[in-house]
Amino acid sequence: MSHYIVEPVSGVSGAVRVPGDKSVSHRSLMLGSIADGVTEVSGFLESEDCLSTMKAMRALGVKIEQTGPQAVRVHGVGMRGLKQANHALDLGNSGTSMRLMTGLLSGQPFNSELIGDSSLMKRPMERAAKPLREMGAQIATLDGKPPVKITGGATLKGIRYELPVASAQVKSAVLLAGLYAKNTPTTVIEPAVTRDHTERMLLSFGCQVDAARGEVSLTPPTQLKACTLEVPGDFSSAAFFMVAGSINPKKDAVLTITGVGINPTRTGLLDILALMGADLRVVNHRSAGAEPVADIEVRPAQLKGIHVPEHLVPLAIDEFPVLFVAASCAQGETIVTGAEELRVKESDRIAVMADGLKAMGVTCEVLPDGIRIQGRPETKVFSGGTVDSHGDHRIAMSFSVASLRAAAPIKILDVANVATSFPDFPGTAGSAGLNVTVHD
Ligand SMILES: O=C(O)C1=C[C@@H](OP(=O)(O)O)[C@@H](O)[C@H](O)C1
Ligand SMILES: C=C(OP(=O)(O)O)C(=O)O
């Protein structure tokens, strides 16, 4: 099992570019596959999770070429052109692939089976299966978990579905099935705003999607029209550098993260860090097709503890592990509540982060739906030592950032899964000034 050794360094500065957005990359493959014509994708994230989606779409009969670095050409087969795979589709570590594919495959005339790695096989799938069954799909899970078995040939009807949890994956699964609903629109009502990449991309493919006041409605199209897609840098990958630049011991340093997707349904961390007193400046606004993009400049600041407003939780859902590192360096207590979803990600991100923080001398208390962290505004907040990421990419990268305020090296166990979202994290982190080395 590979691990990182992360050495304490004097600080970070300069400019970094993060790889393409994982959520957008998955969706580009799925929608490109069922479009009519050839979809060209640039800025594509060549990470293990997105390659799992690519392998699955290829197994369903779609020709997908990798035409250059981060460039993908998807030869769409049309809405009715997918073919039955001759094996179970292994989606590795990727919850997004499994939830969204469950929706997409519910509308097909053939059977499918979805499996994944040991982490994915433990994650809840009924949240997607339930509304899809209401639409007429035939889906079986095992105690609510994978394998997900979909019996093809069902006639789907559009539904009006109120999401019990704020989940973009479930919303997207329902919308993808809604593409196949017979003559009836599908409406999803969200309890809180979640990422809207599916809606934006459906519009790019020529679908009629109406979104207003927490409701998204899709009118089933007769076809999706292939298009050209530009994937922005992943805000969730940029988050590690936003926190690194904020807790940076190098005074007056500026760390700039370039080409970051700043879709407002993703940028909760900007608001949370601003409430904590961070100095983040979003500059050079532009767009990558349907998605807004900018550069983010980060300067060191003395952060202060806050109670994170609950409405920001879904807008920062993947950023909490690294936010906990920021909170450890803040003056005073930070409280996170309303974040029970963190317990059903690649790991239980509340428990696993709390264990690692405690192992490095941080005082924190686990809550059923969050955490309380006692920040210490000292130069060396973390003792260093060994922490276990439990195979969770975001935990491994978060503890790497902690090295900026650590008294001794940090050994981070079980880091291979960093490649699911950020294939060259050690290299990019190194270019900013961190010292992360990989060991077997
Ligand atoms: O739709 C997506 O691409 C994602 C939605 C979120 O999951 P949930 O919908 O389960 O909150 C997020 O945690 C995941 O990394 C990607
Ligand atoms: C939760 C995540 O991804 P997924 O649900 O796709 O495994 C993540 O990337 O943090």
UniProtKB/TrEMBL annotation:
<feature type="domain" description="Enolpyruvate transferase">
    <location>
        <begin position="7"/>
        <end position="426"/>
    </location>
</feature>
<feature type="binding site">
    <location>
        <position position="23"/>
    </location>
    <ligand>
        <name>3-phosphoshikimate</name>
    </ligand>
</feature>
<dbReference type="InterPro" id="IPR001986">
    <property type="entry name" value="Enolpyruvate_Tfrase_dom"/>
</dbReference>
<keyword id="KW-0057">Aromatic amino acid biosynthesis</keyword>
<dbReference type="GO" id="GO:0003866">
    <property type="term" value="F:3-phosphoshikimate 1-carboxyvinyltransferase activity"/>
</dbReference>
<feature type="binding site">
    <location>
        <position position="22"/>
    </location>
    <ligand>
        <name>3-phosphoshikimate</name>
    </ligand>
</feature>
<feature type="active site" description="Proton acceptor">
    <location>
        <position position="318"/>
    </location>
</feature>
<feature type="binding site">
    <location>
        <position position="169"/>
    </location>
    <ligand>
        <name>phosphoenolpyruvate</name>
    </ligand>
</feature>
<dbReference type="InterPro" id="IPR013792">
    <property type="entry name" value="RNA3'P_cycl/enolpyr_Trfase_a/b"/>
</dbReference>
<dbReference type="InterPro" id="IPR036968">
    <property type="entry name" value="Enolpyruvate_Tfrase_sf"/>
</dbReference>
<keyword id="KW-0808">Transferase</keyword>
<keyword id="KW-0963">Cytoplasm</keyword>
<protein>
    <recommendedName>
        <fullName>3-phosphoshikimate 1-carboxyvinyltransferase</fullName>
        <ecNumber>2.5.1.19</ecNumber>
    </recommendedName>
</protein>
<comment type="similarity">
    <text>Belongs to the EPSP synthase family.</text>
</comment>
<feature type="binding site">
    <location>
        <position position="95"/>
    </location>
    <ligand>
        <name>phosphoenolpyruvate</name>
    </ligand>
</feature>
<comment type="subunit">
    <text>Monomer.</text>
</comment>
<feature type="binding site">
    <location>
        <position position="345"/>
    </location>
    <ligand>
        <name>3-phosphoshikimate</name>
    </ligand>
</feature>
<dbReference type="Pfam" id="PF00275">
    <property type="entry name" value="EPSP_synthase"/>
</dbReference>
<comment type="pathway">
    <text>Metabolic intermediate biosynthesis; chorismate biosynthesis; chorismate from D-erythrose 4-phosphate and phosphoenolpyruvate: step 6/7.</text>
</comment>
<feature type="binding site">
    <location>
        <position position="349"/>
    </location>
    <ligand>
        <name>phosphoenolpyruvate</name>
    </ligand>
</feature>
<comment type="function">
    <text>Catalyzes the transfer of the enolpyruvyl moiety of phosphoenolpyruvate (PEP) to the 5-hydroxyl of shikimate-3-phosphate (S3P) to produce enolpyruvyl shikimate-3-phosphate and inorganic phosphate.</text>
</comment>
<feature type="binding site">
    <location>
        <position position="167"/>
    </location>
    <ligand>
        <name>3-phosphoshikimate</name>
    </ligand>
</feature>
<dbReference type="InterPro" id="IPR023193">
    <property type="entry name" value="EPSP_synthase_CS"/>
</dbReference>
<dbReference type="InterPro" id="IPR006264">
    <property type="entry name" value="EPSP_synthase"/>
</dbReference>
<feature type="binding site">
    <location>
        <position position="22"/>
    </location>
    <ligand>
        <name>phosphoenolpyruvate</name>
    </ligand>
</feature>
<feature type="binding site">
    <location>
        <position position="27"/>
    </location>
    <ligand>
        <name>3-phosphoshikimate</name>
    </ligand>
</feature>
<feature type="binding site">
    <location>
        <position position="318"/>
    </location>
    <ligand>
        <name>3-phosphoshikimate</name>
    </ligand>
</feature>
<feature type="binding site">
    <location>
        <position position="394"/>
    </location>
    <ligand>
        <name>phosphoenolpyruvate</name>
    </ligand>
</feature>
<feature type="binding site">
    <location>
        <position position="169"/>
    </location>
    <ligand>
        <name>3-phosphoshikimate</name>
    </ligand>
</feature>
<feature type="binding site">
    <location>
        <position position="123"/>
    </location>
    <ligand>
        <name>phosphoenolpyruvate</name>
    </ligand>
</feature>
<keyword id="KW-0028">Amino-acid biosynthesis</keyword>
